[in-house]
Amino acid sequence: MGDTVIVVGAGLAGIQVSHQLADLGLRVHLVEKEATVGGLSAHLGKVFPTDDCALCLDACEELFSGHHRRCQYRSLLGTQKKLSLHTLTEVRSIKHEGDKFSVSLKTTPRYVLLDRCVVCLECINVCDVEVPDELNLGRVLRRAVYRPIPQGVPLAPIIDMNSCTKCSKCVDVCKVDAIDLEQKCKTRTIKADAVVLATGVEESSPSVLPGYAYGHCEDVLTQRELGRLLDSAGPSNGKALTASGRQVGSVTMILCAGSRDLNAVEYCSRACCTYSLKHAIMLREQGVDVTICYMDLRVPTHSQSFLERARESDVTFVRGKPDHVVVREGSPVTIVEDTESQKRLEIESDLVVLASPLVPHAAEREVFNSFLDKYGFAARHNALKGIYACGTSTGANDIPGSVAEANSVALEVYMALKGGA
Amino acid sequence: MTETGEKKGLPDVFIEPINMSELDRGFRKEIQSMPNGEELSACFACSTCTSACPVANIWEIKPHQLIRMIILGMREKVLSSKEIWLCLTCFECQERCPQGVRVTDIFFDCKNLAAEENMIPDSIVALGKELLEKGQLYIVTADWEREDLDLEPDVPGLSTDAVKRVLGGTRTGRLVKGGK
Question: Which residue from A minimizes the CA distance to B11?
Fold first, then answer.
């Protein structure tokens, strides 16, 4: 048996499984379609269960030193010999040939050469083009040459050709000739002995379950968007502001805004209860009143402390699922029946935050279709030997669950390729 | 499910204890066997139906409570409740139920059962009587409504005889005449 493994998706699970396999001596290609690694977690600022910065949760030299604090920023992702990271790369096809897989990859240009760039960021300073930064809710501007996430690996910037004017100022200012505005797409085929899908999930648009005024009122956000607001590297340096720039005084959260609903997403998204509680605690620290409307709180044991802390910090819990949010004088009003007091409440607040369901990325791509179930999730062991999946690509999950599954799959892949049995 | 904290004292609304001996354990199956009642027990009491309902705010028993009462078997209380008759049948609750419980249709089933057992409020019987005798619920008053619109006093071709005749042979007819 050979020893080449392709891992699709460099989110937390993909990074974890890649590091484990590379440390075990296998040859790993980690394929990521975005410009930087980290996936959904890199959008979230602090992450549970440790309230660390998400970028710190990954992969560095201390892998076996007993530490869990591992930083993507200072990670070995770009330097480990047995691990090649391919960013801006998508899987075009997976062909089964004998006991190997022939995987065709397509890399779209970054226009900044990773092997030359020294991350001086002069190009960003010199760029004249300013466009809304989509990652930060469009509330701040970014340049045409930019870093999507400040500490995202690889650290080199990327050029957004949709807004670039090709004025060449960045090319002139770059002292190491790292910018190539004429870079072309590249395709390559890699023969692999195993493929691990770690394609992850994204937060779906709240339009899967209409009625909550998302899109009608700018102060109705999703939890990921609130995560951006509360991130110290976010658009308002961690302060909760309304779309008009006013300090937020009260926030209403709606859980299961689409999950566990036969009209939208049938399954439980599993992570949203806990990250809603995490955000509620962070808002309470800023003195913001928080009301959480829930039907059940599904907090796993390892995150129970978040529920306790939310109670201690006087978060208001309303047991009832709101049916709709109406906009009155520009502010969202949540209409909910509190099943404990049996009263219909109309909760006025500055922000309404929806826990939108987590939906699988893999379902968007036809190439993975044959490995997916009706929801778009993959089985940990595919019927086709040699295809594995881990992290949220096997079902919505929180970070501890994803990382645990990644570790377990890494061992399984190693046993299958190198095991003595 | 995780409870949210210790409750201080009694809840805001104190609920009468349910007398177990008065429960009809067959009631749930009875409703489930009726048209559109199959999903009844899928209800997880999230109360979306109640917050969707445009009129439940003035009801004593809310839609999600009625569903719960059916599942528990509180047959007498459900069938004699005024709420099943106050339902606007706008189907908002049914559209929004995350579990696909056909709430409005289940209330129709309850109304049918209540009608079978002569538990209809007088106001509803009065409506039935109106239908039976006049063949329509809202009579167009010829004196000004049509005149203002430059229409002849009588609605051309209006015939209510068939409706009256058919209704007379139905349960509506029997109920209005006071029989079973």
Answer: A341
Residues of A in contact with B67 (CB under 8 A): none
* Domains A4-107+185-202+359-419 and A109-183 belong to one CATH topology: no
Residues of B in contact with A324 (CB under 8 A): 51-52
Q: CB distance B47–A321 less than 8 Å?
A: yes
What's the mean pLDDT when you consider all of chain A?
89
Q: Is the pLDDT of residue A334 over 90?
A: yes
Contact A308/B at CB under 8 A:
no
Please report residues of B whose CB lies closer than 8 A to that of A298. 1-2
Fold for domain A205-356?
Answer: FAD/NAD(P)-binding domain (3.50.50)
CA distance B67 to chain A (A): 14
- Chain A within 8 Å of B16 (Cβ-Cβ)? no
Provide the CATH topology of domain A109-183: Alpha-Beta Plaits (3.30.70)
pTM for this prediction: 0.87
Contact between B44 and A263 using a beta-carbon 8 Å cutoff? no
Chain A residue closest in CA terms to B49: A323
Please report the domains of chain B, with CATH numbers, ordered by start residue.
Answer: 20-116 (1.10.1060.10), 122-177 (no CATH)
pLDDT at B148: 84
Interface touch B2/A296, C-beta < 8 Å: yes
- What ranges do the domains of chain A cover? 4-107+185-202+359-419, 109-183, 205-356
> In the predicted model, is pLDDT for residue A78 greater than 80?
no
* Residues in chain A closer than 8 A to B1 (CB atoms): 296-298
The complex's ipTM? Answer: 0.80
Question: Any CB–CB contact under 8 A between B100 and chain A?
Answer: yes
CATH for A4-107+185-202+359-419, among 3.50.50.60, 3.30.750.24, 1.10.10.10, 3.55.40.20? 3.50.50.60
Q: What is the pLDDT of residues A271-295, one digit of tens each?
A: 999 999 999 999 999 999 999 999 9
pLDDT of residue A185: 95
SS3 for chain A, per residue? CCCEEEEECCEHHHHHHHHHHHHCCCEEEEECCCCCCEHHHHHCCEECCCCEEHHHECCCHHHHCCCCCECCCCCCCCCCCCEEEECCEEEEEEEEECCEEEEEEEECCCCECCCCCCCCCHHHHHCCCEEECHHHCCCCEEECEECCCCCCCCCCCEECCCCCCCCCHHHHHCCCCCECCCCCCEEEEEEECEEEECCCEEECCHHHCCCCCECCECCEEEHHHHHHHHCCCCCCCCCCECCCCCECCEEEEECCCECECCCCCCCCCCCHHHHHHHHHHHHHHCCCEEEEEECCCCCCHHHHHHHHHHHHCCCEEEECCCCEEEEECCEEEEEEEECCCCEEEEEECCEEEECCCEEECHHHCHHHHHHECCCCCECCECCCCCEEECHHHHCCCCHHHHHHHHHHHHHHHHHHHHCCC
